[in-house]
């Protein structure tokens, strides 16, 4: 499934200290993109991408959590890749989706947390602590107020 007529109107990544776009340990992501699709279809497109990765990524996995009180959907997912030297990079993401408006346009708000580990040893340690770690992060993500997207103009 593909997200149709999506126009990104706002995107920000907030990196933890000593991080950069290519190599970070922790990042908060805020994004708004314009779409007429239902929230469930937007999330389904992301889960389909993760499903496709499963053929080449042994850790690729996800779970979807729906909040009936707020109509938000959270996606908890894990994936990996290898760097140029063949060492693993493992990434966990918690994505929280909500319908919203920005600059008078209808779309989807994304509030997300991303955590990475680099190298085989660090990746193994990351995976061993994942169960407790991600439970804490998902709780933080879903309990925090959804950020408001306010135009600066």
UniProtKB/TrEMBL annotation:
Keyword entries, A-Z: Plasmid
Descriptive protein name: Uncharacterized protein
């Amino acid at each position: 499934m593909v997200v149709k007529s999506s126009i990104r109107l706002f995107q920000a990544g907030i990196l933890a200290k000593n991080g950069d776009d290519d190599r970070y340990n922790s990042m908060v992501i805020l994004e708004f993109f314009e779409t007429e699709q239902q929230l469930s279809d937007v999330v389904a497109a992301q889960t389909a991408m993760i499903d496709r990765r499963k053929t080449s990524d042994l850790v690729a996995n996800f779970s979807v959590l729906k909040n009936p009180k707020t109509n938000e959907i959270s996606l908890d997912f894990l994936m990996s890749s290898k760097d140029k030297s063949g060492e693993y990079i493992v990434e966990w993401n918690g994505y929280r989706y909500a319908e919203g408006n920005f600059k008078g346009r209808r779309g989807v708000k994304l509030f997300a947390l991303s955590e990475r580990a680099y190298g085989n040893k660090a990746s193994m340690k990351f995976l061993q602590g994942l169960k407790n770690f991600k439970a804490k992060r998902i709780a933080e993500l879903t309990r925090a107020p959804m950020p408001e997207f306010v135009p600066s103009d």
